[in-house]
Amino acid sequence: MSTISKSSQKRKSDARRQSLIDSTLRVIAREGVAAATVRTISREANVTQGLIRYYFQSKDDLIIAAYEDYMDRMLKISGRATKGADTAKCRLIRYVEASLTAPVSNRQQAATWAGFFQILLHDGHLLKQHAKTYHDLRQQTKTLMADVFEEEGRAKSDSELRRLSIAGRALLDGLWIEGGAIGDSFHPGELLRVGLEGLGALMDVDLKAYRDTKAGCGVV
After folding, report:
1. Would you say 174 and 104 are in contact if contact means Cβ atoms under 8 Å apart?
2. 138 close to 169: Cβ distance less than 8 angstroms
3. Would the pTM of this model clear 0.90, i.e. be above it?
4. Domains in the chain, start-ordered, CATH in brackets?
């Protein structure tokens, strides 16, 4: 088999696997993890159950792969939002904005997370993956905070940055959940303002005022 044929075959295989993951996420968002059986997922993907078993040894393996994909997308979208910002404060502001607006924060994303959370604390493999992705999210936040402090010439120890990043993630995650679940309860832009004000208060930096006066600080 030629190199081109092998490459084409791999792309098709990867696309088929991704399609199964996407179908799983749709089922979880719509009906919860309990409803995400091999039969239900096969109907959603319009494939045979045998094809699912070809790519994943068990339903649990597929659920874990779906969770990894779900969180990886969140990490990448929030991370990409910081690209091109010319100051550390702008990078952090863009990160907060991306974290609290669509496509990261909406009802479907909240529903998907709620579906995973049904089994998260009772599944060792999924809990281990959650610990990893939470660490990655907190590390993103910690790095952005550290850059702001460096930009301002304010030295912070690693233990201080750890504490601030834990508090910062708790703030953003809480707003993310409520924004996705009951977004219509808030005024336009309200959660973003609260997020910037809250994170700014933790860091003693007026992020909201900086965003209002610095051109190009919003997500582009």
Report:
1. no
2. yes
3. no
4. 1-56 (1.10.10), 60-213 (1.10.357.10)
Distances (CA, A) of 148 to 139, 152, 203, 211: 14, 6, 9, 14
Q: Which of 82, 67, 69, 80 has its CA nearest to residue 33?
A: 67
Say how many residues make up the chain.
Answer: 220
Q: Report yes or no: 25 and 112 within 8 Å, Cβ to Cβ.
A: yes
Structure tokens, 146: 């550290």
Q: Which two tokens stand for residue 44?
A: 């959603």
Q: For 172, how many CA atoms within 13 A lie in the half-sphere containing its CB?
A: 29
Distance of CA 46 to the CA centre of its chain: 27
Main-chain phi, psi angles of 216, to 5 degrees: 85, 10
Query: Is residue 184 a contact partner of residue 195, using CB atoms and an 8 Å limit?
Result: no
Query: Which residue carries 């494939």 as its tokens?
Result: 47
Amino acid code (one letter) for 147: D
Are 121 and 177 in contact, with CB atoms under 8 Å apart?
Answer: no
pLDDT one digit per residue (tens) for the chain, 220 residues: 556 567 778 888 899 999 999 999 999 999 988 889 999 999 999 999 999 999 999 988 999 999 999 999 988 998 899 998 989 999 999 999 999 998 999 999 999 999 998 888 888 988 999 999 999 999 999 999 999 999 999 999 999 999 999 999 999 999 999 999 999 999 999 999 999 999 999 999 999 999 988 877 865 4
Give the DSSP H or E segment for 156. Answer: none
**Residue 156 dihedral angles phi and psi, to the nearest 5°:** -130, 135
